[in-house]
TrEMBL record:
Pfam families: DUF1796 (PF08795). This is Uncharacterized protein. It comes from viral metagenome.
Length: 202
């Protein structure tokens, strides 16, 4: 099983690392992907790191929170992300051609605070389920033999209800409800992610 973090922020990569599920660096590990993950993969990450606006956000609405801050490191940062993008594309291509390892894409759904970041520029961030379904359609078309799951763990109390079971029509998408009003949400998210990854690895 290959685990691929796809946002919304670095929490997924951090927890995969904490529990030794993360084996490599990939494009969405340490940034904030408000939207656009599906478009990145559909375009083979074309112009993923250029041009960036003054807030270090690319044309796919991915915010490079930890990178591209210093002029002296721009080339290093670009090369780093080029390697990560190539690595993920090679994983998808190779496992599509060989029907090899299963891929698990994991996304932490947006939280209330993400509505207000970047000057509230990303109002469509609330479409977590639609974005997952868009990614599913792109993967089906580009990599028809790929064996994968998309895990979406919801968390925003503004957009989703704590007591509602959310489902997708796609058998490739699993949605988990970790919506909670207080600090317990972080613990719920961590437990959910660990249980999903651990069960898929056994």
């Amino acid at each position: 099983m290959i685990f691929v973090p796809i946002g919304v922020d670095c929490d997924v990569a951090y927890l995969l690392n904490k529990y030794n599920f993360r084996k490599m660096s990939l494009p969405f590990d340490w940034n904030v992907s408000y939207t656009g993950v599906a478009k990145c993969i559909d375009s083979d990450f074309n112009e993923y790191t250029a041009p960036l606006n003054e807030s270090r956000v690319n044309k796919y609405n991915v915010y490079f929170h930890h990178d591209f801050e210093f002029q002296s490191l721009l080339i290093v940062d670009k090369e780093k992300y080029a390697r990560r993008c190539d690595r993920l594309l090679n994983i998808l291509k190779e496992n599509n051609e060989t029907s090899g390892e299963h891929i698990m894409f994991i996304r932490k759904g947006h939280l209330c605070r993400h509505h207000d970041e970047q000057g509230a520029a990303y109002s469509d961030i609330m479409k977590d389920i639609c974005e997952a379904e868009c990614l599913d359609n792109i993967l089906l078309n580009k990599y028809p033999n790929l064996k994968y799951k998309i895990i979406l763990i919801l968390g925003c109390t503004k957009c989703f209800n704590q007591d509602t079971t959310y489902k997708s029509n796609s058998e490739n998408i699993e949605i988990y409800n970790c919506i909670h009003d207080d600090e317990a949400r972080g613990k719920l998210f961590e437990e959910c992610l660990f249980n999903v990854c651990n069960s898929s690895n056994t």
